[in-house]
Amino acid sequence: MSLPVVLVGGGVAVNSFLKANLGSPIVVVKGNKFQEWNMAASYYLTHPSEYSRFIAADTSAFSKALPNVTYEHEAAAEVDHEAKVVTLQSGKRIAYRALVIGTGMNIPIISAKAGTSLEARVAEVNKWGSALTSPSKKIVINGAGAIGLEVAADVRLANPSADILVLSRSGGVLTSHDYPAETIASVLKELKRLNIKVLKATVTQDSLAPSSTPKLIKVVGGSVIEADVFLPAYQQGCNTSFLNASLLDQTYIKTNSSLQSVVAKEVFAIGVNTLGIGFAAMELGPQSLACASNVKRFLAGQPLKPYVVSKESALGLKPAMLKLGYGKGGWMRIDNMPQPVQTCSFICGWPCCPCFALCGGLTCCGTPCAPAQGQSAMDGFMGMFGPAGINAFPENSG
Q1: Separation of alpha carbons 77 and 114, rounded Å
Q2: In what helix (H) or strand (E) does residue 166 lie, and over which residues does it extend?
Q3: What is the pLDDT of residue 397?
């Protein structure tokens, strides 16, 4: 039997990659014996008693039985790209013909770390849930992007008496994406309503570690911020610490336009590459298929094809929906949906857009000829999909 293609990762990257018929055995290294719907992290970290809704503990639910595909539900500990061997946490070694890395972004606490047991993750969620929802605490969220703002808002809804401060290096919000001024203004208005303050501050390297107990946070310039709870809520590079540093540019795999490592030709990368595209689900699907096609070409000794972001998948480079708190008191704005949904939602009023007529669960009407935003938008989303789209889990999670 020929050596397999080894795919390290989970979620969208795995689902899309496995749709391709490589004509070769595939070993998928999943990282954990459970699957977590981490898009709902802001909700389950503030509602820890509901965490079980957002996990699949049965591996058969998220590791679909497919011909020529086997699964390892443990973390990759090391890769010897010269010997072409992956070593797992247990010490098991897997030789490969090609290696695909799709391990996603590193966001401690927000996402379960590879190699974590379910018992340990439940304990972690409970610890942070207790800290974030304890009354009258000063809670500091580091990061004013979509993740940080979503976490801050869910903390507010679960903890009305907390003093919530969001730290932003620029002093603004959502600056990593090119949002219209109207969108930014709407978000700032909602943060004011929720009594969530934004402070321009850059945390020093030695203060970046999260803490569920009181901490003094040092910021550039010499100031110190006191916090009862400190939670960084932004992408901290990629989950590639098990790879040799020679493969990496910081935490990203150095790749060419064909998603192939420039150091080890047998290694390919989905998301965690140096193309600078990102991790949005709408983009990762096409990228995974393109990677699978190039792996197949590589195995056959054929020239690889450059990956080009399509107009449709480019929409996925920033969130389709901005959400500030799930449920009563929450807010959502639809800002980056594909056509005709975006225009239809504006004209008809979300969630009465005919594009969603078959979704069911329509509980309210939006305002026609106005941005699809507000409590009504959140109510419609919750009615159809649940917090962070949990009604689709685990089928869409890997």
Answers
A1: 10
A2: strand 163-168
A3: 46
